[in-house]
Known about the structure:
Layout: E1 11-17, H1 28-40, H2 48-58, H3 64-71, E2 80-88, E3 91-98, H4 103-123, E4 135-139, H5 142-153, H6 155-158, H7 165-168, H8 177-180, H9 192-195, H10 201-226
Antiparallel strand pairs: 1-3, 1-4, 2-3
Amino acid sequence: MRTTEFANEEYYHIFNRGVDKRKVFLCKADYERFLISLLLLNTTEGRLMEKWRDFKKFNPKAKLKDFLNYQKIDLADKLVEILCFCQNPNHYHLILKQLKDRGVELFMHKLGTSHTKFFNKKNDRSGSLFQGPFKSVHISSNNQLLYLSAYVNMNYYIHGYEKSLSDALGAWMYSSLPDYLGERNENFCNTKIILDQFRNVAEYKKYMENNAKHFKEKKEMEKYWLE
């Protein structure tokens, strides 16, 4: 039974991983579809992923903005505000602000169901893909929000998928890191809430670097505590 009570205008750290720690993203297509679903499922309008699939079938070189313009789709009416996200091979992290009643629950249900159906059909499997319902933690202070933003943006590096911090800051594209570094402008997330609290992008980048080192060192030490 879920213990978190979601409230409008509050922030939450959301995460989940594959059942038995299995990979939930196996290739570029898996990552890209989930990335696009962050936009197209974050609305009360239905069947946008199916419409996008059909549009791409007849317009293989089309970009997402071409689809949105063609369908005259306005994504401003959101269920949640996405502040940060990161997709790793066997799990994901999100920082969400709820905008509508039950917005987090509705969005996460659509996101999990959609990716599971896509993944299972593609890989000829059945059953649950994720390890139970998504996990959630209420973010109770601004300091915690900033701290977790660094954790999520740098999560690919923290988990050791990227060995070098300098390479990690080259921006794992299946995270919100490129958006925060000004290297992408696709409206996948709202960076303003975090970045407005720093003098510039360079100051926030340094903040992420320092905290990412701390998180990674802590994670490395946990291996020894468990042995």
